[in-house]
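Retro notes, item 3 of 5
We never archived the inputs for the S-adenosylmethionine complex last cycle. Fixing that now. Sequence and ligand:
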Amino acid sequence: MSKLSMAKKFNNQADVVLYEGNALDLLAQIPDGLIKLVVTSPPYNLGKPYETRLDIAEYIEQQSLVIDECFRVLHENGSICWQVGNYVKNGEIIPIDIMLFPIFQRLGLHLRNRIVWQFGHGLHASKRFSGRYEVILWFTKSNEYTFNLDAIRVPQKYPNKKYFKGSKKGELSGNPLGKNPSDVWEIPNVKANHVEKTDHPCQFPVELVERLVVSMTNPSDWVLDPFMGVGSAAIASLMHGRKSIGAEIVPEYVYIAKERIKAAEEGKLRIRPMERPVYDPGIKNGGIPPKEVKIDGPLQQTLLEQKEGYE
Ligand SMILES: C[S@@+](CC[C@H](N)C(=O)[O-])C[C@H]1O[C@@H](n2cnc3c(N)ncnc32)[C@H](O)[C@@H]1O
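Structure as it came back at the time:
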């Protein structure tokens, strides 16, 4: 029997809600101000197997309805991370973040970073430069927002570097906990050889969502992905003792999400670790291997551990 409490529609007592259906129908079930982090990659209107290509104005209108609802359910100290690339038509690109920015602005959200997510694989263009990055727009609802920087610091390039003159001479010049990961993230995207690859054509790498979840929420907070695909945001959230809720219209993807969560509960889901360098040579050459993650539900246990100094 599953240790995590899973629900098919919103239930405040559940650890994870996997809603099979339209994002707007799930959002309507969620109370105002509940969600600490909305993190999603919406359909890009490219005619992928799961979407019908819409007229641009209609696409923006649909996104606007979902973003308005995400704003309503967002906690006062919460964040929205909208991960997008380009809309492409007849070889011409329109950056989706530029199209959608006025919607977030109208709602009075505060843009904290426009994170550039850089990766190595994608289509090879012949009439323009091949696209190798997408962006994450990170907004907060207010100026009082959760941001646990120490939890997501990355190793310093020269960890032993010291001041060589002045009053701090001999002391370490960098933060011993590591450096701020900056707003340019080099994280492999999930293509054929990636350890997390499923049947979904464009899933999040778990490590990308992990960094957002760990920095922008605290244990037991709710994380919402209105376009959850195969549940990568749910896995990242549950791995770190957060509660997760998401909607997905394609039943097969909901099924895969459920199976991935179950595998993680059993310690059998393989993911690329957050701490693995991009040019890691792989286990055969002494590098960091993929890790099997274990979700330690139920959440009550996590809260107990928290009281006893967990995290
Ligand atoms: C870019 S993918 C997100 C993939 C996800 N980040 C993951 O890691 O698997 C967008 C997803 O939104 C789903 N979708 C499209 N329209 C939707 C809607 N109105 N409500 C819920 N899901 C929708 C698609 O089926 C697709 O799986």
